Amino acid sequence: MVSAARPAPDDDLRGLRRLGGWGAIGSVALVAVQVATFSVRPPARTTPEVFALMIDDPVVGLLSLDALYLVNNLAVWLLYLGWAAALRTVSRSGVVLVVGLGTLQMAAYVASNPAAEMLTLARAHAAADDAGRTALEAAGEAVLAGWTGTAFLTYYLLGAVVLLLVARLLHLAPDAPRGSSLWAAAAGALMLVPSPFGVVGLVASLASLVPWCGLCLISARWLLGRSEGPDRETPADHATA
Hints:
single chain, 10 helices
């Protein structure tokens, strides 16, 4: 009796590596769009300004509250999956931590982003009387305060931990792109200083975009390359725990 041939285990993960590569490209593109948007039209800072922007131009209002980063984080999560597929032969426990902590990171960001809440409050504010507007502005202040609160800080620090883990795995991987571990380590180290931490945090957050984009472009080429054709067996194919 002849049984059907089974695909090689690594062949089953080509799709994840391909998704990870395109996720990396998507993240760079979305970061560029967000930076360009902020350069042309700086985000509103006060609750009345946010409300007015949400009514006048809801799309720009949502972008000013980093709604685009919700999409960007999906692309980043796909990149995490791609890294896990490519690096699982280095350390299975390591890639489990990357995907697990990365998923918690994305959930924390979704919980922290106030874009939808502020759009709803802005519409209610536009239709309310004076007393109602005062109450809605107070609600808006509370929502904006939570934007950079515990959930956002959790998102930021988990991102730093994930990148430092990835840096270690890339350093150990025999076929990882040259210098990729340094890009990951630099981005992770800069994310240890969250953006809400004053001027230092703002500078660190902007500076972290440079190694992050470099890491994404290198990873995209690597992951897309590894999604084509059968993998070559390496000594790392005997994964460590």
